Amino acid sequence: MQCQSCIDHQDVLFHLKTRHKDMMPLTDVNDRISQALETSGYSIVYPPTVPTEPVPPIFGLPHPRPNYMICHHCHRGFARVDVNGRRSDSFRKHKCPGTSQKTHSISSVQTFGHVNPVWFPVLEPTNEAVQCNSLWEAYKGHMASRPQESNKVSLPDNYRVLHQFLQKNAWIEHLEGTSPETILDLIHLRRNDPLLPKLAMHISAFLSYYQVKLGNDYYLRRLIGTRPW
After folding, report:
1. DSSP letters spanning 16-74
2. pTM to 2 decimal places
């Protein structure tokens, strides 16, 4: 989602209407998602349980924020320490029932939502499990590593009659190195062609007319058929 928040899977329509008013969701989107979850076998709980121990960064949530203070008692993250390493005001002011001694550790954090966010600790981005920032980055890297496609036209060894004609008249050598897009543009017959208007329609009508005249002769009908072989 654009908002990078965890939403209630039982009422996705409400979230889309209130937070993404530019979208036009289907009215039965809740039923569709419920059916998809039932067939997938996944067990989803909302609201999600906030981790108390560092977990690998969760894809889809905002990118981890570094240098947050994690309270050892409530396991929540608070605003970053300053340049001198002093505790932030939010950490000093927060209250943990049952304890008066506040200790903390420094960690990167994420949150499930932007409304009253609760920051939880995540592993550092340098961890091997999170070398890639996102699945999208991994996909782009994979696509870039593929061999580049070539525009060179390959010809089979067993030339058909048309290929033999082209080779005999040196058309293949004449067009060697020309991209297929350029050739297609040269032979493309447009609807508003000034020299041959509606030529394709006339040819199709001509062949259809004589197909009917041929009766049940299958081979002759195939010979002048309007469909490709």
Report:
1. HHHH-TT----TTHHHHHHHHHHHHT----SSPPPPSS-BPPPTTSPPPEEEEEEETTT
2. 0.48
Q: ∠ at Cα 199 (198, 202), nearest 5°? A: 90
At 122, the pLDDT band (50, 70, 90 cuts) reads very high
Work out the percent of the chain whose per-residue pLDDT is above 70: 73
CA angle 167, 171, 176 (to 5 degrees): 105
User: Which single residue is written with the structure tokens 């989602």?
Assistant: 1
**Cα separation values, 38 from 31, 33, 35, 43, 48, Å:** 11, 9, 5, 9, 18
**Length of the chain measured in residues:** 229
Between CA 33 and CA 37 the distance in angstroms is 6
Closest residue by Cα to residue 69 from 102, 96, 95, 99? 102
Q: What is the pLDDT of residues 170-189, one digit of tens each?
A: 877 888 888 888 888 777 77
Q: Judge whether 44 and 37 are in contact, CB under 8 Å.
A: yes
Residues 30-39: pLDDT tens digits? 888 888 888 8
Over the stretch 49-81, which tens digit does the pLDDT of each residue have? 889 899 998 888 888 888 888 888 888 888 876
Residue 211 region, left (φ>0) first, then alpha (ψ -120 to 50), else beta? alpha
Look at residue 15 and tell me whether its pLDDT is greater than 70.
Answer: yes
For tokens 């340098």, what's the residue?
126
Whether the Cβ atoms of residue 108 and residue 65 lie closer than 8 Å to each other: yes
d(CA 120, CA 117): 9
